[in-house]
């Protein structure tokens, strides 16, 4: 059944932050930017990955991280969504889930202030980058094991976080399960961002034939990290509808027309064309074209 005319489009606001080590200060900055987005008419507002605390030191991270129940940051965002009457997507924050175990958890809050969905980041960023940078996300965070869809008034939202974008099977699975929009709140490094940010997000949009909504961290952080920024909205056809610059704290806005999903899937119905196959290795010891 087609969506009612007043539900066929909506306004997205993506908040670009430079999160530090002070939770109270980070929440104050998050609130300022979310209010700015709401004042500009955004009905769905997304913040970046680790919006509440950016901390690489394990001991400090464990001291500052709380369980979800009774968490002041969760309560703060619930109240903010309710006050502004918006769908507020907290890109992610660390949540204590056991002794020395933290989930990198994304929250979607409804305009009534309830938690409409949760998603724990599945793929952990464990890499050695050129230049000596090293990241071991799995040292501090427990990976999730469930892909999550959430219902918005305008369509179905698939929830992912940052490094997940390098795993296209997740995005195709979300699209096949009904996603029309996919969130990718991120804290992308500068070297990988310069090389891959736009290419990966445009590819995920084209493959899944979904809108990609990716709020990003940007700039030099107190923890010693530098992030790429360039928060971005991409259409199901791969067009960039809105993009922030690389280093500034800011808000970007885009009007999302859900009919673009249907149009992209009608023009190239690739989600219907999967075929089973097996991977085989050619026998290099024999010349298959040799005469017998």
Explained architecture:
- The structure is a single chain.
- The protein is α/β, with parallel strands linked by helices.
- It has one domain (9-271): Nitrilase/N-carbamoyl-D-aminoacid amidohydrolase (4-Layer Sandwich), CATH 3.60.110.
- Helices cover 27% and strands 27% of the residues.
- It has helices at residues 23-39, 58-64, 72-84, 137-140, 168-176, 190-208, 259-267; strands at 9-16, 44-46, 87-98, 101-109, 115-120, 126-128, 134-136, 148-151, 156-159, 181-183, 211-214, 218-220, 226-228, 232-234, 240-243, 250-257.
- The strands form four sheets. It has a six-stranded mixed β-sheet with strand order 5-4-3-2-1-16.
- Strand 8 and strand 9 (156-159) form a beta hairpin.
- The protein is globular and about 65 Å long.
- The termini are far apart.
- The model has no long low-confidence stretch (mean pLDDT 93).
Note the main attributes of this structure.
single chain, 292 residues, alpha/beta, Nitrilase/N-carbamoyl-D-aminoacid amidohydrolase, six-stranded mixed beta sheet, 16 strands, 27% helix
Number of H/I helices: 7
| Major sheet: arrangement of strands | 5-4-3-2-1-16
Share of residues in helices: 25-40%
Total tally of structural domains: 1
Largest sheet: 6 strands, mixed
Q: What is the ordering of alpha helices and beta strands? A: EHEHHEEEEEHEEHEHEEEEEEH
Quick one: overall form? Answer: globular
CATH architecture: 4-Layer Sandwich
Highest CATH level, the class? Alpha Beta
Q: Please indicate the percent range of residues in DSSP E strands (runs of 2 or more).
A: 25-35%
End-to-end separation:
61 Å
User: Which oligomeric form is depicted?
Assistant: single chain
SS class:
alpha/beta
Residue windows where pLDDT falls under 50 for at least 5 positions? none
Rounded to an integer, what's the Rg over CA atoms? 20 Å
CATH fourth-tier homologous superfamily: Carbon-nitrogen hydrolase
């Amino acid at each position: 059944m087609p969506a009612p005319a007043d539900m066929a489009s909506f306004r997205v606001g993506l908040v670009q932050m430079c999160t530090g080590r002070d939770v109270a200060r980070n929440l104050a900055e998050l609130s300022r930017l979310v209010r700015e987005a709401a004042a500009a008419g955004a009905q769905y507002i997304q913040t970046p990955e680790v919006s509440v605390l950016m901390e690489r030191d394990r001991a400090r991270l464990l001291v500052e991280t709380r369980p979800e129940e009774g968490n002041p940051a969760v309560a703060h965002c619930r109240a903010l969504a309710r006050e502004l009457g918006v769908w507020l997507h907290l890109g992610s924050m660390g949540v204590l889930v056991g002794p020395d175990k933290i989930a990198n958890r994304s929250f979607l809050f409804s305009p009534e202030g309830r938690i409409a969905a949760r998603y724990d980041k599945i793929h952990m960023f464990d890499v050695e980058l050129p230049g000596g940078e090293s990241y071991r996300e799995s040292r501090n965070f427990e990976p999730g094991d469930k892909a999550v869809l959430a219902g918005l008034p305008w369509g179905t939202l698939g929830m992912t976080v940052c490094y997940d974008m390098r795993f296209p099977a997740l995005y195709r699975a979300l699209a096949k399960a009904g996603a029309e929009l996919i969130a990718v709140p991120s804290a992308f490094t500068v070297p990988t961002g310069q090389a891959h940010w736009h290419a990966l997000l445009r590819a995920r949009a084209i493959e899944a034939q979904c809108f990609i909504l990716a709020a990003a961290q940007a700039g030099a952080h107190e923890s010693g990290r530098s992030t790429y920024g360039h928060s971005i909205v991409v259409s199901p056809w791969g067009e960039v509808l809105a993009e922030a610059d690389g280093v500034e704290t800011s808000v970007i806005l885009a009007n999302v027309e859900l009919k673009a999903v249907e149009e992209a899937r009608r023009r190239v119905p690739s989600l219907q064309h999967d075929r089973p196959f097996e991977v085989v290795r050619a026998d290099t010891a024999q010349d298959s074209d040799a005469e017998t």
